[in-house]
Amino acid sequence: MDIQNNIISRPLSNSLNLYLLDLFSHTNLVRVIKDKAWIAGGFARIVAHDEFKLTKSKNHKNIEEYLYGNGDIDIFSSSLSNIKNSYMKFTRGKLYQDAKKVSMYDCFQFNYDSCFSNNVNFPERKALDLNTPQSFRAYNAQHIKLQFVNKFFYDNIKDCFDNFDFTNCKYALTFLNKKFIIHYDKKALEFDKIKVLNLEHCNSPLLGNRIIKYLTRKKCLDGLYESESNQNILSSFCLKVLANDWDKVYKDNFYNTLTPANLFVPRLHDIIKLKKEDLILFLGKITMSKTQYHNGGYGHYSYSETRNYDWALDAMSG
């Protein structure tokens, strides 16, 4: 076991290592993370939960549930040339060509770009079996979504962790000597054990949406850790949203304009309840609409009435 500051690195247990080798045996993923690239974030976190028995799931089912339930595998590297090479390693050879042929009849898009990555929807191994009916391949095959991050680059895993907005995301996977190596920040494991989300910074306009995702869709955290630091980060996030104060990489690559509504500020307030001082910032900035239905009485005539209202003013009075 290797310990660097708060980061611990150790091989996975034999059982989990063999499971992952089998799970990805029809892909070139291991080849990618052997050299100058690593997996970090959500998928590595799920693997760590399995390794450290933070899940009640048996036979590593939590990993399959993540992968085949809209989860993804984020792959990072230190430069654009390195991540391009990693992508090329993944997309070369017979394994990839076989998957590509299968995906010709697939209702999923095999390769596509998103804001910050090149992506591959790789079919599950069953879909590559020649005895599997074509109808299954087209409509029922499950997929592993891989994201080769091509807008953010880090010198090493520690640098990568330092740029994550959640402490809980500080997990990574590499591969060495036929073994998957788990790297994790001790604090990430501590917060996951008590099932609370801890914030690190608000450098990304996606912070609000990610908080919503982790506290609703992920279903493994009970809430936001109550601390002055987290409250200060949320207040700073609200100021940055109002001022549109984001790094160029976000402004140049985000699909939508970075408005308070597009950054899900109202939904964020529903989940964690922003302070009154933060809500005041959005007075006059977000207009919502509400429809009321009325019964006209005699003859059961009914009608609707839609009105617009100031979201922040309504939230402060609620």
What features would you describe in this structure?
It is a single chain. 39% of the residues lie in helices and 22% in strands. With 318 residues, the protein is α+β, with helices and mostly antiparallel strands. It folds into two domains: 2-192, no CATH class; 223-282, no CATH class. The chain has a nine-stranded mixed β-sheet with strand order 1-2-9-8-3-4-7-6-5. The protein has a two-stranded parallel sheet with strand order 10-11. Strand 8 (171-176) and strand 9 (179-185) form a beta hairpin. The protein is globular.
β-strand number = 13
The portion of residues assigned to helices is 25-40%
State the order of secondary-structure elements, H for helix, E for strand. Answer: EEHHEHHEHHEEHEHEEHEHEHHHHEEH
Number of domains: 2
- What portion of residues belong to β-strands? 15-25%
Name the strands of the widest sheet in spatial order: 1-2-9-8-3-4-7-6-5
What structural category arises from helix and sheet content?
alpha+beta
Radius of gyration: 23 Å
How would a crystallographer describe the biggest sheet?
Answer: 9 strands, mixed
**Low-pLDDT residue intervals, each spanning 5 or more residues:** none
Principal-axis shape:
globular
Please, how many helices?
A: 15
Straight-line distance between termini: 52 Å
